[in-house]
């Protein structure tokens, strides 16, 4: 792996660190002020989109915004995926177990990215990518907890589980579409146009939190700035340098960060299985980023 791609993955890992703070912030909003998860997701996009637009205007002052008709379909697909993720995931956590919804969404998304990137972007699945997936997915399951898998086959949770899979597809679509668009457009512009589209699509679902104090609005503002605007700007820049599939694996750092924050600030405990999962997840990043001294032809064999 060349240095440019490794730097792209580093940016995505930093984005994932910010992503990982979302759950803790949303937990505080719900426990302290009674703000439901869907409202948090919608306002996160509402606050994030303007930040991205301002950043896009500032970074394209010399060249100007380059928007062509051929890009409009990509922005629309990306925007639908942004809105679809907020609606499907936050409904999934209500209709199935939270751990199950998170497990399905996070673990299925990289597999969908690998498939969609192969079909639409012609990305190649090397043994390095497959090895990273083989380490990262079990590691993520162990971090999130095996108890989340128990509800996957429970009939009463079927609709919620399907919504979680829809969230995984939405997220995978943002990765693959973002990779395609950043090939010809500045990454921040891609995110600004796409999140602007997503915000417009979410307008019918917007509810104003009742009696929310200034501290609550500041938390929502934080969610819009850091885990949304800054994180997706970093993600877009990383996607320009790294493949879609490797990027989706790097984002799996998010549940590790979220778990460590829950341990430090919410008082949760990480089990031994969770620590093993953390080691596996970090090992997958090593496989992705550390260049091998000698890579045999068999290791570079393409899985077609």
TrEMBL record:
InterPro entries annotated for this entry?
A: EamA_dom (IPR000620), EmrE-like (IPR037185)
Which residue spans adopt a coiled-coil conformation according to this UniProt entry? none
Domain of life of the native organism: Bacteria
UniProt domain EamA: residue ranges: 7-144, 159-289
Give yes or no: UniProt keyword Membrane.
Answer: yes
A Gene Ontology cellular-component term? membrane
- Keywords from the named record: Membrane, Transmembrane, Transmembrane helix
Q: What is this protein called?
A: Drug/metabolite transporter, DME family
The lineage, from the top, is: Bacteria, Bacillati, Bacillota, Clostridia, Eubacteriales
């Amino acid at each position: 792996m060349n240095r440019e791609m490794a730097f792209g993955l580093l940016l995505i890992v930093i984005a994932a660190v910010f992503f990982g703070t979302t759950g803790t912030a949303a937990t505080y909003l719900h426990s302290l002020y009674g703000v439901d998860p869907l409202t948090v997701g919608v306002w996160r996009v509402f606050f994030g989109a303007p930040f991205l637009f301002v950043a896009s205007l500032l970074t394209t002052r010399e060249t100007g915004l380059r928007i062509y008709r051929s890009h409009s379909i990509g922005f629309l697909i990306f925007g639908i995926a942004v809105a679809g993720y907020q609606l499907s995931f936050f409904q999934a956590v209500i209709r199935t177990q939270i751990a199950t919804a998170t497990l399905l969404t996070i673990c299925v998304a990289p597999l969908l990215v690998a498939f969609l990137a192969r079909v639409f972007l012609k990305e190649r699945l090397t043994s390095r990518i497959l090895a990273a997936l083989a380490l990262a997915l079990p590691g993520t399951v162990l971090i999130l907890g095996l108890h989340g898998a128990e509800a996957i086959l429970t009939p009463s949770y079927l609709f919620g589980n399907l919504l979680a899979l829809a969230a995984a597809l939405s997220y995978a679509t943002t990765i693959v579409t973002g990779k395609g668009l950043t090939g010809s457009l500045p990454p921040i512009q891609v995110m600004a146009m796409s999140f602007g589209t997503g915000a417009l699509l979410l307008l019918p679902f917007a509810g104003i939190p009742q009696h929310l104090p200034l501290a609550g609005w500041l938390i929502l503002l934080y969610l819009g700035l850091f885990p949304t605007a800054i994180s997706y700007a970093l993600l877009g820049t990383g996607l320009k340098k790294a493949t879609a599939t490797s990027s989706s694996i790097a984002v799996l750092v998010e549940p590790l960060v979220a778990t460590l924050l829950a341990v430090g600030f919410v008082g949760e405990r990480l089990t031994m299985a969770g620590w093993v999962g953390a080691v596996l997840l970090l090992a997958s990043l090593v496989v992705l980023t550390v260049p091998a001294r000698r890579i045999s032809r068999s290791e570079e064999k393409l899985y077609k």
